[in-house]
Design goal:
It is a single chain. Helix content is 46%, strand content 13%. The chain is built from 5 helices and 4 strands, in the order H-H-E-H-E-H-E-H-E. Strand 2, helix 4 and strand 3 form a beta-alpha-beta unit. The radius of gyration is 13 Å and the shape is globular.
Length: 123
């Protein structure tokens, strides 16, 4: 789970911990830390914000895919631009959830992505 806003990171982690089949293996608050932890842990799924300090989420995803191509990325972001969303999907991310819809879409996105399906919040 990668987000620079700690209260939102806590919300996402507590939401996902309610699912017994999911395990949070790491958290990061900036892009460089996210890349380092992903390289070390090689998680199945990465929840990632786009607007991160030191390295934006899109660049983080690019770098992660070079050393861990099996990791699936879901962006959870405030960025509602259709162009940005399309750019992330073209990069190969599996999900795109708007932060304003995280309460209703996050678990559905995680479940869909773990089943090999893409998930995109309605913009």
């Amino acid at each position: 789970m990668v987000d620079d806003y700690e209260p939102f990171r806590r919300f996402v982690c507590s939401t996902l911990r309610k699912r017994p089949t999911l395990q949070i293996v790491g958290e990061a608050s900036d892009g460089v830390e996210a890349v380092q932890k992903a390289e070390e842990l090689k998680p199945d799924l990465i929840i990632l914000d786009i607007g991160l300090p030191t390295l934006n989420g899109i660049e983080v995803a690019r770098r992660i895919y070079t050393f861990s191509p099996r990791s699936k990325v879901i962006f959870v972001t405030q960025e509602s631009s259709p162009d940005v969303m399309q750019a992330t999907l073209n990069l190969g991310v599996w999900g795109y959830v708007l932060k304003t819809k995280a309460g209703s879409d996050l678990v559905a996105a995680v479940e869909a992505v773990l089943l090999g399906k893409r998930f995109v919040s309605t913009l």
